[in-house]
Amino acid sequence: MTEKTIPLLPCRTELIQSVVDFYTALGFETTHLQKSPYAYAVVTRGAIELQLYGMKDYDPASSHSSCYVLTEDVDGLHAAFRSGLKAAYGRMPTRGLPRIGPLKDMSYGVRQFLTTDPTGNTVRVGQVIGGGGEEEPATAPKETFARALHTADLFADSKQDYPGAAKIIDRVLNLEDEQPTPVQRVRLLVLRGDIAQRLGDEEGARAWLEKAASVQLSAEGRETAHDALARLSDLRG
After folding, report:
1. Which DSSP string do the residues of 49-78 spell out, in sequence order?
2. Distance CA 88, CA 80 (A)
3. Which of 134, 116, 10 is nearest to 70 (CA)?
4. Per residue in 110-164, pLDDT tens?
5. How far is Cα 188 from Cα 199, in angstroms, rounded to an integer?
6. Reported pTM
7. Distance CA 180, CA 165 (A)
8. Is residue 1 packed enough to be buried (19+ CB in 10 Å), middle (13-18) or exposed (0-12)?
């Protein structure tokens, strides 16, 4: 016997069509949609199935609803989702609702990205780095700047505690007795600029991103920092 888990995600009732349109842009098929006597939708993409139910007073801004999708091709899904969203919205939605986040290698052994629909549900898509197996527990690195990146990523993406993430980055960038590698500096600065944008600090975001763009990287460093540089291009574009 094969079991299957299907996430049930809340949706503000009047947003049900915009949410379905969002998942359509990601390549999902709508297999069921009703707006009365209550809002309910089912969307599928391959083996992924999400069911959305309407709530009249649901607040997307305070939503913590989410689910995790494990895949063997996270890069391919990220590219497909980005392409679909850009075609549907005429731009890449990187903040607010809806939005899609950057692709990152996390320090706990997963390469992942997050995308959030118009009603605040976050779908986290990840692939275990280096082959199959289960996601490893989130164990923070011990090195100063790797640990800061690890913790700031968790604060920003998992907890959505942007002030807390900013505080972590600001502290390590102001250290006088230790300095990050150029790749670490780029990653920290890009994340700091990303956070500033999410907080609505456009001027601060531009300053952080300009600093990131000015860091000199070797060819090997640019390859290592590929994901951060791609995010930098998105944020500055």
Report:
1. EEEEEEETT--GGG---EEEEE-S-HHHHH
2. 12
3. 134
4. 999 999 999 999 999 999 987 544 544 456 788 999 999 999 998 888 777 899 9
5. 16
6. 0.82
7. 17
8. exposed
